[in-house]
Amino acid sequence: MIITLKYFGLIADLVNTHEEQLELSVDNCTSQELCDTLQSKYPGLVNTNFAIAVNQLIIQSVTPISNNDIIALLPPFAGG
């Protein structure tokens, strides 16, 4: 399974890129499993808060990830 990962703000700085393709060795994956994989690959993400969007929808709970999905890691937002 291949997914596209997009990183923004502080997250992009931590992983040293804004976008990458990631091939996962499993056909079925959840957002939590993906987070675990990314935290292993990029240890700087371990203590970093971020939101996850799957195909431009911010998720609030564990969500299935499918082949060709676009996943964005978003830093905390401040508004005003």
Overall shape: it is: globular
How large, in whole angstroms, is the Cα Rg?
Answer: 12 Å
Quaternary: single chain
Mean pLDDT: 92
CATH class: Alpha Beta
CATH architecture annotation name: Roll
Order of helices and strands: EHEEHEEEE
Low-confidence stretches: none
Q: What is the rounded distance between the termini?
A: 40 Å
Helix content: 10-25%
The profile of the biggest β sheet is: 5 strands, mixed
Describe it for me?
This protein is an alpha+beta fold and 80 residues long. The chain has one domain (2-74): Beta-grasp domain (Ubiquitin-like (UB roll), Roll), CATH 3.10.20.30. The chain is 22% helix and 32% strand. It contains 2 helices and 7 strands. A 5-stranded mixed sheet has the order 2-1-7-4-5. A two-stranded antiparallel ribbon has the order 3-6. Strand 4 (51-54) and strand 5 (57-58) form a beta hairpin. The chain starts with a strand and ends in a 6-residue tail after the last strand.
